[in-house]
């Protein structure tokens, strides 16, 4: 059971309010994962010419990437550059390519990506063999090797997901530089992979903090620093040269990083860094260690710990992870001194105090107080998304009566003697109490779902919210029921004459987002089966907008005298007619589409009549090669 717990990555699971970051760190320290990972990292650093080493311990395999590597020429300004995954390959880390509307593409460190790709084929070959011989895989790396290890772990997680494999994977890095932008962090959280990453960061180490600051202005100094670390990891006797960096290189880099970290934390989220942390951060000191997952709290803790450091200490600390790992196992014994003092008033305060002691800043003012607030914020922010999600579920249940009233209205319209159907009844409605009530319910439902989108935009909901079946199905059902009413209102008020047609100029953002949720869901066999009866709601929620466009084009073809433009209009109209007929044949429309006096039925009659007339008096159509193609069907369906 213990071995299973070690690789179950409980750090990624939200804790109760009484579990502290120090307790999570103590759990990890009680396993052999840290010691075994660092032992192999140390060997990898001392093995020139090898990108990674592999060692099996029992049923677990460790893969350690060397930290003794250069980043596309150490002096190149591209050290701090990012490259989009979209520009690499659609298949490379495919699950991370998805993004919500308005989000930046996922981007990663150009140099680290280059290093991983250079060893990719060898790593891929080894993984195909290793996976058959082990029950879990730990990928690790120190310094630059930690960044490469993170990319390797992401690649392996993507592969395992595509194969529906449950092989446990854990990535442990030591003093790793930041890997990518905030979109990468979001994408990893959406996949629920954050718990698969543990980044060990020593109290003063500059490397994990380096890319929070722009490095273009200190490129030459940075090259010297990377060379020093490189030589020291490969040959420990070079560590005595650290004093030579104190003349200008160390202070300039240290102050640069500390200044920008201070600005980031003081801005309170209004200022964004190009790079962003992801996963769990294992902050270690001589007194113990703490684990933090929330990105804002990670940045704050990095800044507070660095304040207590010095330029030389921040450089030397990057080479001391072996010392920290060996001491962390003693942290539980050291906590007895804490119990001799004044006891905290609550378990929450005890957890925070233990965490501060483990971080080595319990009595270090003026940073102890903000560090305490930082830990409390980390705990609160870790729980808030799930609590918000639970509250939303309660609100959703309260608005269900509004949806039920609209469903009842649809059933009444579909069985009405006027045979207009749901869409046209609402579009041609009069000032009746029933119609007004339905219109009010339409607005209330829109307010609720817009509120959901705002919460997502503000990171107030779980990152994988869009994959929860309850919300994917709920948003789709809302869209199927209500979007036809929004389209009816758009054309009823003649907004298309002012703005243009609905799909391109009037469709609300929430519908576009819900579309992407629905398209990226896991499709069941039942959904792929052929329908035996008409759908309760037309499956293309923009169907009526396309009908309105087709009506407009049919009117235009009557008045168009240019043969080429007329042929293009006919091509667009014919394509819609084929598309709509296919929906009807597959029974993917509601019965209101086929109502005797519905807009679609009347359009179909008008189309056939005009088509017949055009055949009797054929116009001089130009060659199809000269026809200007008029797009009609929207790709978002």
Distance between the termini: 48 Å
Quote the beta fraction.
5-15%
User: Could you tell me the mean pLDDT?
Assistant: 84
> Helix fraction?
40-55%
Class by SSE composition: alpha/beta
Q: Can you count the helices?
A: 25
Strand runs, count: 9
- Ranges where pLDDT stays below 50 over 5 or more residues in a row are 1-20, 72-77, 621-627
Q: What composes the largest sheet?
A: 7 strands, mixed
Strands in their spatial order, largest beta sheet:
1-2-5-6-7-8-9
What is the CA-based Rg, rounded? 31 Å
What is the molecular shape?
A: elongated
Q: Can you offer a commentary on this structure?
A:
With 637 residues, the chain is of the alpha/beta class. Helices cover 53% and strands 8% of the residues. It contains 25 helices and nine strands. The strands form two sheets. It has a seven-stranded mixed beta sheet, sandwiched between helices. It is elongated.
Topology:
Blueprint: H1 2-6, H2 21-29, H3 33-45, E1 52-57, E2 60-65, E3 82-84, E4 107-109, H4 110-118, H5 120-130, E5 136-142, H6 144-162, E6 169-174, H7 182-190, E7 197-202, H8 219-234, H9 249-267, E8 280-285, E9 288-292, H10 295-307, H11 311-316, H12 321-328, H13 331-334, H14 336-339, H15 347-358, H16 368-414, H17 421-427, H18 433-457, H19 469-492, H20 502-505, H21 509-519, H22 525-528, H23 543-559, H24 563-585, H25 599-616
Parallel strand pairs: 2-5, 5-6, 6-7, 7-8
Antiparallel strand pairs: 1-2, 3-4, 8-9
Helix pairs in contact: 3-12, 4-6, 8-9, 9-10, 10-16, 15-16, 16-18, 17-19, 18-19, 19-21, 19-23, 23-24, 23-25
């Amino acid at each position: 059971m213990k071995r299973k717990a070690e690789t179950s990555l409980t750090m990624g699971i939200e804790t109760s309010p009484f579990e502290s970051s120090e307790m999570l760190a103590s759990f990890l320290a009680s396993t052999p994962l840290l010691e075994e990972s660092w032992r192999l990292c140390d060997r990898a650093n001392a093995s020139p010419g090898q990108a990674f080493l592999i060692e099996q311990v029992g049923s677990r395999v460790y893969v350690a990437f060397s930290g003794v590597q250069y980043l596309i020429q150490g002096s190149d300004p591209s050290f701090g550059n990012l490259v989009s995954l979209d520009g690499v390959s659609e298949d490379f880390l495919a699950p991370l390519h998805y993004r919500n509307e308005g989000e930046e593409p996922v981007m990663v460190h150009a140099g680290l990506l280059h290093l991983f790709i250079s060893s990719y084929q060898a790593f891929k070959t080894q993984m195909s063999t290793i996976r058959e011989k082990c029950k879990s895989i730990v990928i690790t790396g120190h310094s630059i090797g930690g960044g490469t290890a993170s990319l390797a772990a992401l690649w392996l997680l993507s592969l395992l997901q595509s194969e529906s494999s449950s092989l446990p994977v854990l990535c442990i890095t030591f003093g790793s530089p930041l890997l990518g932008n905030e979109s990468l962090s979001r994408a990893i959280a959406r996949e629920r992979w954050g718990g698969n990453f543990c980044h060990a960061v020593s109290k003063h180490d500059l490397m994990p903090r380096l890319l929070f600051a722009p490095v273009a202005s200190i490129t030459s100094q940075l090259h010297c620093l990377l060379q020093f670390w490189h030589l020291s990891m490969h040959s420990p006797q070079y560590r005595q040269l650290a004093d030579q960096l104190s003349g200008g290189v160390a202070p300039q880099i240290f102050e640069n990083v500390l200044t920008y970290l201070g600005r980031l934390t003081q801005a309170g989220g209004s200022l964004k860094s190009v790079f962003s942390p992801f996963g769990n951060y294992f902050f270690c000191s001589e007194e113990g260690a703490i684990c933090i997952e929330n990105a804002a709290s990670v940045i704050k803790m990095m800044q507070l710990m660095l304040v207590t450091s010095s330029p030389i200490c921040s450089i030397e600390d990057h080479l001391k992870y072996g010392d920290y790992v060996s001491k962390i196992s003693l942290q539980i014994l050291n906590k007895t001194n804490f119990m001799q003092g004044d006891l905290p008033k609550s378990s929450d305060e005890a957890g925070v105090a233990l965490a501060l002691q483990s971080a080595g800043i319990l009595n270090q003012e003026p940073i102890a107080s903000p560090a305490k607030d930082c830990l409390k914020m980390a705990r609160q922010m870790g729980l808030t998304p799930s609590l918000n999600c639970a509250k939303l579920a309660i609100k959703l249940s309260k608005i269900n009566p509004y949806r039920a009233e609209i469903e009842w209205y649809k059933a009444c319209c579909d069985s009405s003697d006027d045979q207009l159907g749901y869409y046209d009844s609402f579009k041609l409605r009069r000032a009746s109490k029933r119609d007004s009530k339905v219109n009010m319910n339409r607005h209330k439902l829109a307010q609720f779902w817009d509120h959901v989108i705002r919460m997502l935009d503000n990171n107030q909901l779980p990152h994988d919210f869009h994959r929860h079946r309850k919300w994917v199905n709920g948003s789709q059902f809302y869209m199927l029921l209500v979007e036809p009413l929004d389209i009816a209102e758009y054309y009823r008020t003649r907004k298309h004459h002012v703005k243009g047609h609905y799909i391109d100029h009037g469709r609300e953002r929430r519908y576009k987002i819900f579309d992407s949720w629905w398209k990226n869901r896991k499709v069941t066999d039942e959904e792929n089966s052929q329908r035996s009866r008409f759908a309760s709601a037309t499956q293309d929620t923009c169907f009526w907008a396309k009908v309105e466009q087709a009506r407009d084009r049919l009117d235009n073809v009557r008045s168009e005298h240019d043969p080429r433009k007329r042929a293009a209009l006919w091509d667009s109209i014919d394509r819609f007619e084929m598309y709509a007929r296919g929906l009807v044949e597959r029974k993917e429309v509601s019965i209101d589409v086929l109502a005797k006096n519905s807009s679609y039925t009347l359009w179909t009659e008008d189309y056939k009549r005009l088509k017949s007339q055009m055949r009797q008096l054929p116009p001089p159509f130009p060659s199809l090669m000269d026809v200007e193609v008029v797009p009609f069907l929207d790709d978002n369906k």
